[in-house]
């Protein structure tokens, strides 16, 4: 076939392919005749390529400069034919690596030749057909016979069902044989020539940037939620959010004891992948190249096209990425190498880009801060629980002849206030108090005073002697803190009180009358010789003795007014004859209303009623 004849045949083929496209658009419900004709045209294209190759092989050899000129003309003709071919053609080497693509291939896949050349073509092939592709490629190379089969190609968020034909080529100047893969689209309408890629339009770029910003806002809101601090929900919540909007698979690995351990796996919800998800969960992240790389470098990586399917390690079905059907992968550190967050997309989605890596780096940083904050919060919470247990009994014991109840609200610094009920020689004792300070030091002083009152009461029958000895011990410690406290010993209907700078107790009689006892004295820890106020009371049945902390009466409303003793007396008067639990709950509810739920200092209310 002469060159003009070849060019005429090529033009005729292009015209017939164009007619087939028009027929497909005009009769979408009757594709069988169009498909049969398209396959026939594919055979014609294969024959044309084979004949062009044969002509190049048989071209006469000339000597000297004419020889070089003739070879150059033949190569130029081949390049023109390759570029003008009306269907996608990809030249592959023996390993399936893309060596050249024609403009029709660029238009179909949505990527320029500079992006695809040098990449592994099987990564574009549907996972279920990759093994078949490799077999056909090997067969075409070894036997020289054309091979054809149907498959899907996916790239840049586009999916095409194609009839793929492969023909062995011997390229001038190439030491190894090549394969020409011709992809005839069956189900996808190709974009018009010269059309701008949708993902590059200004509107699409702006929308993508807004989506990334929206993700950061959603992630920050999610991680700053109080529940994310109280419970270990930050990682599962973050992976669910990312799986819903940004990836098909999301994996979080957290470093514990210096070793990465799988913490959370989110799989696609629209596929029956339960068993695969369990395999991914059980896979050891310490065997994952990408996880170890991110931890070692403390920086993220993005693979727009996954070429090494072993990057994420192995599961029972082989490489994890192969089982997932992965085409694109992104991994970023969680915090300062506290873990790794990995996102995977399959062939049906647009691959990750550098802009996605930047936003996920920020997500990983936020997630790391949240995980650390959660750990610190839980450590402090456990410490606070321990302090609370050291300053307040879990349950009040039964005091013969009395009913007792109490409420305790921690403030901004747990541990400064305490209350206690304990047995003493011949009866029962109770104590209430608080250190003038905040933080761990105040809590430790409070715990010492509470423990001292409880222990010394075993040997002393007078609460005032106990208070004085505790004062000596506190002064000897030299903490510089002082404690307001009151202690009472109950024997029958008699209660002996010793006050060291504490608020006076309130007596609520059956008729609603409220009277305050003397109270007073000097707080413990100020001077070596304690100055206490001692008082002996008789509490008949029906009368209630109420003790309370500084935090109650000093609570303030929105106008800055203190709760005060008078408001407390009004509430107590309305509770005459009620049980101690009713009394403390009424005081608690009234203070809550007064201060609009705000609690700054610890609040203790203790009620003891004769029965």
TrEMBL record:
Domain of life assignment: Bacteria
Molecular function terms from GO: phosphatase activity
Pfam families: PAS_4 (PF08448), SpoIIE (PF07228)
Classification via SUPFAM superfamilies: GAF domain-like, PYP-like sensor domain (PAS domain)
Entry keywords, A to Z: Hydrolase
Coiled coil (UniProt feature): none
Stretch forming the signal peptide: none
Gene3D superfamilies: PAS domain (3.30.450.20), PPM-type phosphatase domain (3.60.40.10)
Residue ranges occupied by any PAS domain in the UniProt entry: 74-144
Name of the featured protein: PAS domain S-box protein
The organism's taxonomic lineage, starting at the top: Bacteria, Bacillati, Actinomycetota, Actinomycetes, Streptosporangiales
């Amino acid at each position: 076939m002469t060159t003009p004849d070849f060019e005429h045949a090529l033009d005729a083929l292009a015209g017939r392919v164009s007619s087939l496209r028009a027929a497909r658009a005009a009769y979408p419900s009757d594709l069988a005749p169009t498909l049969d004709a398209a396959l026939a045209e594919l055979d014609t294209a294969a024959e044309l390529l084979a004949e062009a190759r044969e002509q190049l092989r048989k071209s006469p050899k000339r000597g000297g400069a004419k020889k070089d000129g003739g070879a150059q003309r033949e190569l130029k003709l081949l390049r023109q034919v390759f570029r003008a071919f009306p269907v996608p053609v990809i030249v592959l080497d023996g390993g399936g690596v893309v060596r050249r693509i024609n403009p029709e291939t660029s238009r179909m896949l949505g990527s320029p030749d500079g992006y695809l050349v040098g990449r592994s073509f099987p990564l574009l092939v549907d996972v279920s057909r990759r093994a078949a592709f490799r077999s056909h490629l090997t067969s075409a190379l070894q036997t020289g016979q054309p091979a054809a089969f149907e498959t899907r190609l996916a790239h840049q968020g586009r999916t095409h069902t194609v009839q793929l034909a492969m023909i062995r080529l011997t390229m001038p100047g190439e030491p190894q044989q090549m394969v020409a893969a011709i992809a005839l689209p069956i189900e996808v309408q190709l974009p018009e020539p010269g059309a701008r890629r949708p993902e590059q339009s200004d509107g699409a770029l702006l929308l993508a940037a807004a989506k990334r910003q929206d993700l950061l806002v959603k992630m920050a809101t999610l991680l700053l939620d109080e529940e994310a601090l109280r419970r270990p929900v930050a990682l599962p919540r973050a992976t669910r959010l990312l799986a819903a909007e940004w990836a098909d698979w999301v994996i979080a690995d957290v470093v514990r004891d210096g070793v990465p351990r799988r913490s959370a796996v989110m799989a696609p919800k629209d596929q029956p992948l339960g068993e695969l998800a369990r395999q991914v969960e059980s896979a050891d992240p310490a065997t994952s190249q990408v996880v170890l790389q991110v931890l070692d470098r403390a920086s993220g990586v993005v693979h727009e096209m996954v070429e090494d399917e072993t990057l994420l390690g192995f599961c029972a079905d082989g490489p994890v990425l192969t089982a997932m059907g992965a085409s694109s992968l992104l991994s970023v550190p969680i915090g300062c190498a506290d873990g790794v967050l990995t996102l995977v997309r399959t062939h049906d989605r647009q691959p990750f880009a550098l802009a996605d890596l930047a936003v996920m780096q920020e997500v990983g940083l936020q997630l790391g801060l949240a995980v650390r904050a959660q750990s610190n919060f839980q450590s402090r919470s456990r410490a606070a629980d321990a302090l609370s247990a050291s300053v307040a009994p879990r349950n009040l014991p039964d005091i013969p002849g009395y009913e007792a109840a109490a409420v305790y609200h921690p403030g901004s610094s747990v541990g400064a206030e305490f209350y206690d009920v304990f047995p003493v020689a011949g009866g029962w004792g109770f104590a209430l108090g608080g250190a003038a300070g905040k933080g761990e030091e105040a809590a430790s002083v409070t715990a010492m005073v509470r423990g001292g009152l409880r222990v010394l009461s075993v040997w002393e029958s007078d609460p005032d002697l106990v208070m004085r000895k505790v004062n000596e011990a506190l002064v000897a410690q030299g903490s510089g803190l002082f404690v307001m406290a009151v202690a009472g010993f109950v024997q029958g209907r008699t209660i002996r009180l010793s006050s060291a700078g504490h608020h006076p107790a309130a007596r609520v009689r059956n008729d609603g009358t409220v009277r305050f006892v003397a109270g007073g004295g000097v707080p413990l820890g100020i001077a070596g010789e304690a100055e206490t106020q001692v008082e002996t009371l008789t509490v008949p049945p029906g009368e209630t003795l109420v003790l309370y902390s500084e935090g109650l009466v000093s609570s303030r409303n929105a106008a800055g007014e203190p709760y005060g003793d008078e408001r407390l007396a009004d509430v107590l008067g309305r509770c005459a004859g009620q049980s101690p639990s009713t009394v403390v709950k009424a005081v608690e509810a009234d203070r809550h209303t007064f201060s609009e739920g705000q609690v700054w200092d610890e609040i203790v209310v203790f009620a003891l009623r004769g029965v």
